[in-house]
Amino acid sequence: MPYLTNKSTGFPAWYTISFLGSLGILNTFAMCFNFNIMFYRLVKAPINTYNNETDENFSDCPQVMDSNMTDETNNHSEFTWDFKTQRVVLESFFYGFCLSQIPAGFSSDVYGGKWPFGISVLVTALACLLIPSAARTSNGALISVRVVQGMAAGISVPSINTLLAKWVPKLERSSHSAFILNGIPLSNVYTYIIIAFLLKNEVYGSWSLFYLQGTISVVWFLFWSILIFESPEDHKFLSESEVKELRKSQDREVKIPLNIYEVPWKAVMTSTKMWALIVAHSGYCWNYATLIVDFPIYFSKVLKYDVIKSSLESSLIFVSSAVFSFSSGIIADSLRMKSYYTITTIRKIMNSFAFFVPALCLIPIPYVGCEGRFIFSLQLFANAFIGVANSGFRVTHIDMCPELAGILVAITGTFGSIFGCFAVAYNEWILQTGHSSKNWKIVFFTSAAVIYVAGMIYNFFVDSEEQEWVSDVKPVDENTEAPEKEK
């Protein structure tokens, strides 16, 4: 579309936002997940309080997957933490992540998304740089840094959603949303590749991962500050006619910044469609926590498979998610442009693949015993299809009300993060007596049931058309002040 071309780069103006936004999401979640991935290299296996044996020996399977588990990991371990300490350290990030999303959604929709998103990546980077020294100082210092890191990361998705609502044409929302959110699975690929390099060059040490990713993210912030503009009207290289063409491609002007005093909160929070979207996001996060947090534990503790040393192979799981995510975005936009289906039908089709296929992949795992390669294939398919959610419920917030895109995703994301924490805690409770096939069957069946029910509720109740309360959302009027509260 030549009328939207940024004359300074030769690309459509919003492509810069999509590209740097995707890199920002990638860097943010890489810095959040890197500690989880390196955890078992940094921490020695504690004693299982239930049978006085090391936890990694308490499973039904022998070494079955071309196993490369050795004592090498413990040779690099610096910390000996009991199970309670491990749990608090790993979960501390999610505590902060839950706390910041709703304030981030408010601030982004009221003041704009550029600086909240940029600062969220910068603070996450600074926290990442502090993690090595904090871990060596005390457990409390490490937990505090992880909470701050989680709070900063929680700002990222609501704020980038606000920018998408203002910049991206209506018929291209799926592909651009999928492209940006692809940064989440690709963050794991990026981290695994760096880990593979570091393991071959031991001179750098395990902590160099945190210094490298933190530094790269600080450099990213400089590019974001210079190249990104809050809205088309603020862009230095877009003419007035080009801005009008962009607004025309969105059917209407997206009224951001909005007047927070004129948001129809009652209509939003009593909407059945909104609560169905909350349920969908919650079920997604429960399943995602099982796939991302618990599957590495399953491979490590049950199948005796060293996920870190097989980092390149493990990264295929996340590559598949990114490929399916972006492909589904292109397909969804194509279906919408050709008017084959309504936007609601398109979202439900994509969401059905994203929710029901992973549920089906989880069910056979307890019955295939220790067939590691087959289990790996099931995880590969589950992660691939869960990426299709980026063209399903994850972009429904913008469809329902572009003006409230940041706030809506913050509300559903907060519930989702809480349910993700519940999933981790629930799975730990189930597995506290050991990594037996019986215990893992409960973990996998529960996750399959949760995401299946969430998918059904989304399909029955969610409508992706603009909601009736969109007309009640009012922008900021620079000539009037917000009403004072009654004394």
From TrEMBL:
The chain crosses the membrane at residues 12-35, 115-135, 147-167, 179-198, 210-229, 275-297, 317-337, 349-368, 405-426, 442-461. GO terms for biological process: monoatomic anion transport. The keyword Isomerase does not apply. It is found in: Membrane. Residues 20-467 form the Major facilitator superfamily (MFS) profile domain. Keywords: Membrane, Symport, Transmembrane, Transmembrane helix, Transport. InterPro entries: MFS (IPR011701), MFS_dom (IPR020846), MFS_Na/Anion_cotransporter (IPR050382), MFS_trans_sf (IPR036259). Its main location: membrane. GO terms for cellular component: membrane. PANTHER family: FI19708P1-RELATED, SOLUTE CARRIER FAMILY 17. This is Sialin. It comes from Araneus ventricosus.
